[in-house]
Specification:
Helices cover 47% and strands 20% of the residues. By secondary structure, the chain is of the alpha/beta class. It has a single domain, classed as Ribonuclease H-like superfamily/Ribonuclease H (Nucleotidyltransferase, domain 5), CATH 3.30.420.10. The chain has a 6-stranded mixed sheet with strand order 5-4-1-2-3-6, sandwiched between helices. The chain is globular. The termini are far apart.
Length: 220
């Protein structure tokens, strides 16, 4: 079963973040992902650098380059959703966050057409009630026929999800105009790079929900 690690870079509520990037990274052999972390941790240990977890915004330049180069060499396929917030301060709710994740999941499904997706999502909500709401909304938003299982993982407990964090950070730095070098390391692995603004993706999501409701409750 194909595993997709998903994480975001940038935030919905902060108006200073012009973009929010959601990245999914397809991994067919988990051992290859584990090997990247082993090499990075060994390198950090040799340089006597202590780090709680490998995140894009905490990692040094050399670590970013080594990690992203490892992802590229492993041939991991990357799916990027770049959302222009249009200067909005957007509530970080299950209803809004699922708009982003479901759109990316549908794109991934169209690309792979797998029998089933194993989605590993970096835990976004601290409250279990919000996580449960998100899961219910996701069922409504994904395309019909998409079979999946989803886990919300604390990245400090399962560091593999940080593969998606590294990809999302590199893509966000491209669109924020901060630095292109990290994006360039993985650009050949990016199979989908979708750019959309918040009003458009929100409207698309609402239309999909209306369509689903009409299908469930047809007119007499």
């Amino acid at each position: 079963m194909l595993t997709i690690f998903i994480d975001e870079s940038g935030t919905l509520p902060d108006p200073k973040d012009k973009f929010v990037v959601i990245c999914g990274v397809g991994v067919k052999r988990i051992k290859e992902a584990e090997n990247i972390f082993t090499r990075i941790l060994t390198s950090l240990k040799r340089r006597k650098i202590r780090i709680r977890e490998i995140k894009f915004y905490h990692a040094g330049q050399n670590t970013k380059r080594q990690f992203l180069s490892g992802m590229a060499s492993a041939g991991f396929e990357i799916f990027a959703l770049v959302v222009d917030k249009k200067g909005r301060k957007i509530t970080d709710s299950p209803e809004n966050f699922v708009v982003l994740i479901s759109d990316l999941a549908n794109e991934i499904n169209l690309w792979y057409k797998p029998d089933k997706l194993n989605i590993i999502l970096d835990r976004h909500f601290s409250r279990k009630i919000d996580e449960n709401k998100f899961n219910e909304f996701l069922k409504q938003k994904v395309n019909r026929g998409l079979k999946y299982q989803i886990k919300h993982i604390d990245s400090q407990q399962n560091f593999l999800v940080n593969i998606a964090d590294m990809a999302a950070g590199a893509v966000l730095w491209k669109y924020s105009g901060k630095d292109l070098q990290f994006y360039n390391l993985i650009k050949e692995n990016i199979v989908i790079e979708k750019i959309i603004n918040w009003p458009e993706i929100k409207r698309k999501s609402l239309n999909k929900k209306t369509h689903l409701n009409q299908c469930k409750h047809p007119s007499k």
